[in-house]
Amino acid sequence: MLAKTWVDRAADSHIPFVAAAVQVGDPDKVPVRQVYNRLTALVTTDDVVAGERAGELAARILPKDHVIKIGIIEGAPGFAVVRQRTEGFRKALDSAGVKYEIVASQPTDWTPAKGESVCQNILTAHPDLDLLYSHADDMAIGCARALHSGNGYKAKLIATAGGSRLGNDAIKNGEVDGSVCTRPGLLGRLAAKALYEAATGKNAAQAQFITYDTPAITKANLSACPPEW
């Protein structure tokens, strides 16, 4: 509600207000593309779509001869993207007709160390796991250490919120099977452009939803996602 108050004050004074990467309003009640009507623009990654891209990638690389066992490495509790990325992931798997079971879904603090710990716990409990799905590159990097620890695990490993230098290197080296390209640098440039155009009168539209493409990336198409962090 505090964010809405500031947007309302700016709008009352005819001052453009652009939100970057964070919705104005309750993200658990309002879809990401439903932008608060007094906001100039919301410039963000569509994390539901990013989750869908991860699910589509999983559907391509996983076997089709049995019910797939999946472990999810979540971000920190309380973040809307945790729900959104899993929602999109499951939607894509369902659309592809994949038979699957999510046998574990555990939170982290968005760090490689916590990702490694959570993945080790999941793999110990489910050594026959088919797929580990991480909500971000950072946890996937830690998860890869657990997965390739010499214990014979066969699970695939993919992530959303990918495209970091370390994440791309992990894909290139075969430690991670794929990710979804996110571009925080581009997000900043799009936000600055929207604010400039509103302030100079080039674009008077309100409640714009501005995003960018988030393709799945593997070793075969890493050049499509140059790292931005």
If you had to describe this structure to a student in words, what would you say it looks like?
With about 230 residues, the protein is of the alpha/beta class. The chain folds into 2 domains: about 1-45 and about 185-215, no CATH class; about 45-180, Response regulator (Rossmann fold, 3-Layer(aba) Sandwich). The protein is about 40% helix and about 15% strand. The chain contains 7 helices and 9 strands, in the order αββαβαβαβαβαβαββ. The protein has helices at about 1-10, 45-60, 80-95, 110-125, 135-145, 165-170, 185-200; strands spanning about 20, 40-45, 70-75, 100-105, 130-135, 155-160, 180, 210, 215. The strands form 3 sheets. A 4-stranded parallel beta sheet has the order 4-3-5-6, with helices on both faces. The protein has a 3-stranded parallel beta sheet with strand order 1-2-8, covered by helices on one side. Helix 2 (about 45-60) packs across helix 3 (about 80-95) and helix 4 (about 110-125) packs across helix 5 (about 135-145). The longest helix has 16 residues, at about 80-95. The protein starts with a helix and ends in a 12-residue tail after the last strand. The mean pLDDT is about 95.
